[in-house]
Fold this protein.
Amino acid sequence: MVRTYMLNTLYQEMRGRLKDEGIDTPDLDARVLLKSVLGITDADLITGADKEVSESESQTIESFVQRRLAGEPVSRILGRREFWGLDFKITPAVLDPRPDTEVIIEVALKRFKDDPPQNILDLGTGSGCILIALLHEFPKARGVGVDISPEALNVAQENAQAHGVFDRIQFIESSWAEGIDDSFDLIVSNPPYITNQSIANLDAEVRKFDPILALEGGKTGLQAYEYIFKGLNALLNEGGTALFEIGFDQQNDVVRLAEESGLSVIAVYRDSAGNPRVVEISSGDK
Ligand SMILES: C[S@@+](CC[C@H](N)C(=O)[O-])C[C@H]1O[C@@H](n2cnc3c(N)ncnc32)[C@H](O)[C@@H]1O
């Protein structure tokens, strides 16, 4: 049976249960779940502490707490994730966007500060978060978002509509750039880069809730880079730039693969934890 609660009592009880079960951020998780279900702000949590929560709201909150206690991330429970300050819908078909991936946006903004890109290709677009954030920042640019998963492309389309950039994006179902015959000023990609062997050792929150298609990078974790780099020169406009997310230990291998494909590596950028995270590549001689 589900009881009705005063807001503050419910909040304290949720925090306690999440903490007792070893959830890392019990306070934050309780607040985010409550705010989402009740449509309230942080301030309401304090000023409305004695507000009564309805039975149906309590039921929804209880089901969310159960899912959190079973290890499901809050973003998966709510089906939403913030990336580059924008709110994205996520479903089981797409990777839960990571803050580290925002390094791609930061580098693109610096690189194209004086001369914005006219067109952008995103290989493995997933939720569309990278491409949509870039089109948000470069309001005159157009984009192409590629994914092999039609379910992911549906999510990316919805996100593009929600952020008002749908008219500037073409979504293509393709294995990497097989279906593309255009060339671009900016190419971005966060391909799957976990080795097959490491998948079993990933945190349960990743292993159980991110789609395998978004994680698995083959035996060496480098399969996607190897394939994409072979055709990258032809996809880049003269003076164009490609930005690839990499795993924390993949810098040497990815740089080597790029150079073996005749590409020039301009720089490698680190994430907030200090790990190499984004490789900047330009086309070789054209
Ligand atoms: C690591 S996820 C990145 C998603 C999104 N760009 C992000 O950063 O959150 C990799 C994406 O590549 C897609 N993918 C995997 N293999 C692919 C292939 N052969 N061709 C195109 N996309 C592929 C997956 O479906 C997934 O959406």
